[in-house]
Amino acid sequence: MKTKLSTSQIVVGIIAVTLFAVALSSFSSSKKTAESLDYPVQTTEVEMPITSEDGLRERVIVPFGETGQLSTLSLQVHGFEQANTISGVLHGTTQTKVDATFILVDMSVTNLTNSTFTLYPKGMLLSSREGVTYDIYQATSGGAIGYEKRAIDARNLGNGIEERGVLVYEVSKDFVPYALEIEKSGTNDTLIFELEKEEQEAEPQLLSYRIIETEDFSYAGCKRIGVRLVVPDESSKTDVNFTLKRVADNYINQWDDITIWAWGYSEEADVGASGFTKGMYETGSCS
Prior knowledge:
The protein is an alpha+beta fold.
């Protein structure tokens, strides 16, 4: 006995067959694509530093000789030295490359944690003011331990016990070291340990001077005076400028415009006959 299919049953059957065909086609396409990749896909992992919301780390300057605190230790820089060779127990004397030199940074560290740990200074970068950086010497093979007997690499640090040693860097001969750059773990801070004390600009000094001549240049109702004087030959430009301003103060109440020219003591005979050599100062209210 034959059973006649209803219209709805036919429609459902057509839909089912269509879906099966689409699935089979998709599987076949995926398999073909996978089989066509006859080499492994390689990916590169990039280790990114911790960044703030604006994408920049906070640089915290630690002036030379002061102590900076990292997450697990405190650190103080005592200075640095340059050398062409280093000497250690395991490797004897090591000569730097022809176009390079060693920089040894003298420092003290103190463990701030409750347990002993070993110091591995890889990532403690030596930097210049221009942003050039070097990692520690032999960073990929454990550091300078064995190459330099004073190296602090792989030193065991007990709680609260200060250890002193050097970090060794091999740098190009034209590299000028400025600081150690160390990222503080768990924060957005990079501590910048300066290697030298910043030179303070000296306060300007009032120089001894002799006024050689003065000249009245007054005209059109404006009282003008010119002053020619000499100062010590070795005077700095800063001190000369400071002195000329102080000399001008002596005339400011009697004159509208003041011009002062300076020569060295040894040039006294040439004052007025040749151009000034040490400096000039002008002030006044006349247009």
